[in-house]
Amino acid sequence: MKPRLFPLLAEAIAAAMAGYLGYQLSTYDVPLLLDLACALALYISFRESLHQLRRAPHTVTHRCTVPGCAFTVRLTRANAVENRRWQEIAATHPSHT
Fold it and tell me: What's the predicted TM-score (pTM) here?
């Protein structure tokens, strides 16, 4: 898919889904401002989800190996050297949270 086509398609799909769900809420006599707030929140959520799905095949995540530690690094389109460097940083970072 062309690089410029996917963002436009994602925006259109997110807007359509948010508009439809906003319309569904309006049929239950939800106040207009609440309906708009919900539709906007849904639009942003759908849009971000679609953009993350697009980046997923090119993304790698490294986590700390210590049980219970929440340290995470997410890399997108990194080369092998950078990928290995961040893998080592994640394994040996000093502050375990």
Answer: 0.65
How confident is the model over 1-9, as a mean pLDDT? 76
H or E element at residue 34: helix 32-55
Instruction: For residues 22 and 37, give the distance between their C-alpha atoms in angstroms, rounded to a whole number.
Output: 9
pLDDT in tens, 48-67: 998 888 888 888 888 888 88
Q: Please give the structure tokens belonging to residue 93.
A: 């970072």
Residue 37, CB-side half-sphere exposure with 13 Å CA sphere: 5
Element (H, E) at 12: helix 5-26
* CA gap 40, 34 in Å, rounded: 10
Q: Please give the angle made by the CA atoms of 5, 9 and 15, to the nearest 5 degrees.
A: 150
Residue 10 and residue 51 in contact, taking contact as beta carbons nearer than 8 Å: yes
